[in-house]
Amino acid sequence: MGGGLRRSLAEVAFLACISNDVVRARRIAKGLNALAPGSREAVIAYAVADLTVGDIEAALEQLRPLSETNDAYGLAFSALALHLSGRLSECDAVLRRVPGGDPDVDGLVAAIGKSSTGHSVERDI
């Protein structure tokens, strides 16, 4: 399965989360994982579903393999999870590790960094 299709399916899972349909989001993530086991898109789709129900630790656990390989998306979503849990110092430390150069990731990093009251992150983009 190509990366474009995986990304589109992950985006559909995100939309399901926006409508609070976590069951549907998890089904999509499960399908993604069946077709592309351990893919970035499947991992992030599961993590966003976990974040939607407030299970920060489960989201961080899902994202850990991506973060450990310095995957920009994995790091950015890990930072989001840490931010949502109020762990702002940890969030800032992760944001500093996110490699720049991908406009989507750079936008997410900027949004997280700006919403951290009293915290600002400097990094090379």
Automatic annotation (TrEMBL):
It comes from the Bacteria. InterPro entries: TPR-like_helical_dom_sf. This is Uncharacterized protein. It comes from Mesorhizobium sp. WSM2240.
